[in-house]
Amino acid sequence: MSNDNGLINAIKSHNPFDRPLVVRSQDIWVTGFPDVPSLNAHASDAVFDAIERVRTKQQPVIGITIKAERGLGKSHLISRIRRRLQTDGSALFVYTSEINDLNRIKAEFLRNLANSLKHIGSQGMSQWRELATAIFNEAYNKTFTPDEMVRHFSEVLKVNSKVVEHWTDRVLGIKHDIENPDIIAAILWTLSSNPSEERYAINWLAGQELPQSKADALGLANSSAQDREAQAFSTVRQILDLISDYKPIVICFDELESILMCNDAGFTASQVTAILAKDLYDKIKRGVFITAMFPQTWTDQIRALKEAESVTDRIAQKTIELTYLKSEDVIALVSQWLRDFYDEQGVTSPNSVYPFDEGKLKELGKERPMVRKVLQWCKENWNTELTPPLHPVESAYKKELAAVESKIQDDIEDKTKLANALRFSFSTLLGQILENVQITEIADIKARSADQGYINFKIIGQEKGNVVKVGVAVLQGVSGKFLQAGLKRLIEYKEFDLTRGCLLRSKKISSGTKAKQYLDTLLSPRLGGEWVLLKAEEIKPLLAINSVMKARSDYELTEVQIIDFALQNRIVIDNNLIHEILSDPSGKIPEDAIDEDI
């Protein structure tokens, strides 16, 4: 070895393998782990071939199912595909893995579609802006880039406030199959250099209700919650058809097994998603579907469907199985991780696998290991005595916290995700005393179907010898009738067996509305309810620890370990939001509530 002290110091000071060795959904969109192109090259080559066949119109739609055991690199493979498409621009990419409500799978997919297209495409701007530019260029026979188009939009808007309306009419003159003109208008609004306008346009495309003032400003119609649910699949189809006029669309379904629940019809997440993929396959003009799952999921769930043949004929025109590593694969994997590490540290190593022994790595390869096992072996054999041992949950929590921080603007509007994080957080405190309340149970709200979904859960406990039952309603990311309906139910203490109602929301509630009347009743001395201001900094750690819990099988952690970590680090028990929910109500409207239009 050379006398390079920098190399020794780098090895002693940092273990590049001491990180969560799991590719999570958020990693698909970032550089993430080092990619080793030779691993599962047969699979990525098959996907790229399918994309090329669709792009050159040899075949309109191709369905590919990837089967692999946990840890064989499904998500690594998907990340490789996404990066290639971002580089060569041969297709737009949509990724869906997080399904909060299986009974609303079409609306959930619309949300994932809209969020996927927010990510940067091959031209340095969001995939939404790529699509908007392509639509405009076709309608006006122009060749703008997305960057030029954003500037053009800004310039024209200054002199013509009706520009989107005029452009939409022009587009509709050549797009005769568009059923809802507002879809074209909303896509064109994503070109706005005003972040608020762009965000609200995408929220509308994602199926969210907009504050009426914003909907009016953008010229977009607000639909009722029921109508939005009914329209979701039609909106998805129209957006996908628009994309298909310019490029193929690659739609990837991943991490289906992490959602252990069934919908009203008794179908699992994997089954519901497979049926959705089949329906999309039948409706879109041009695209490639990739469905990643465990072999057992394929056998026990997909093949068990009554309509199994109809489903598999579409989503599995081609089936690809990922393979365990061989000795040469282990060497390639470790070499790539180390090459990236040493380049980052600015040092040179004597060989590609230093400080490991190549012979030991080859022996490890004879066991046909999974990627994760090899990386775990490297982690454990990297001078571990030089660094204090970490809590097994720590690196996973840091990873999820960083992910939450990167997308908090979206998460802070997702009332289901926020409610789930709060519910889990309170469940870690059973038996604890906070704000003079000893928490004994976290319970569901028993309600008729028409009343479900407004009050998320209730905290039951003892306070000064009395039973308290605090109903928690996260009314974030909603306005209009849904907000009104939620507040109406939050004040019906007898109906829902509550002693106190607690609203969580960051935005103001307009004066002169029915919702404001219900709010005043909630905060009155008679009901003694509370409005707790939802703050991003306070909810972030709760979202992160809940994400770790949801992905515990991926991280190979137990529920006990995660709760122990939360308690040791006082993530929940010292959280101000948690304390505010349990503290004596002030009966006041928070002064820091923000305007709906911001």
Low-confidence stretches: none
Overall mean pLDDT: 90
| CA radius of gyration | 26 Å
**Order of strands across the main sheet:** 6-7-8-9-10-11
Shape estimate: globular
End-to-end separation in angstroms reads: 59 Å
Give the beta-strand count: 11
Helix content: 40-55%
Question: How many helices?
Answer: 27
* Strand residues, percent: 5-15%
Query: Which structural class fits the helix and strand makeup?
Result: alpha/beta
Q: Main β-sheet, in a few words? A: 6 strands, mixed
Short description:
With 598 residues, this protein is α/β, with parallel strands linked by helices. The protein has 27 helices and eleven strands.
Topology (SSEs and partners):
Elements lengths: L4 H9 L27 H15 L5 E7 L6 H15 L3 E5 L8 H13 L9 H14 L5 H14 L3 H10 L8 H9 L5 H11 L6 H7 L6 H20 L4 E5 L15 H15 L3 E7 L1 H8 L5 H8 L2 E4 L5 H19 L12 H8 L5 H10 L13 H13 L1 H4 L3 H13 L5 E2 L2 E7 L13 E7 L2 E9 L5 H11 L2 H4 L3 E6 L8 H10 L6 E4 L2 H15 L1 H4 L3 H10 L7 H7 L16
Parallel strand pairs: 1-4, 1-5, 2-3, 3-4, 9-10, 10-11
Antiparallel strand pairs: 6-7, 7-8, 8-9
Describe what you observe in this structure.
- By secondary structure, the chain is α/β, with parallel strands linked by helices.
- It has 27 helices and eleven strands.
- The chain has helices at residues 5-13, 41-55, 74-88, 105-117, 127-140, 146-159, 163-172, 181-189, 195-205, 212-218, 225-244, 269-283, 295-302, 308-315, 327-345, 358-365, 371-380, 394-406, 408-411, 415-427, 480-490, 493-496, 514-523, 536-550, 552-555, 559-568, 576-582; strands at 61-67, 92-96, 249-253, 287-293, 318-321, 433-434, 437-443, 457-463, 466-474, 500-505, 530-533.
- The strands form two sheets. A six-stranded mixed beta sheet has the order 6-7-8-9-10-11, with helices on both faces. The chain has a five-stranded parallel beta sheet with strand order 2-3-4-1-5, with helices on both faces.
- Helix 12 (269-283) links the parallel strand 3 and strand 4 (287-293).
- The longest helix has 20 residues, at 225-244.
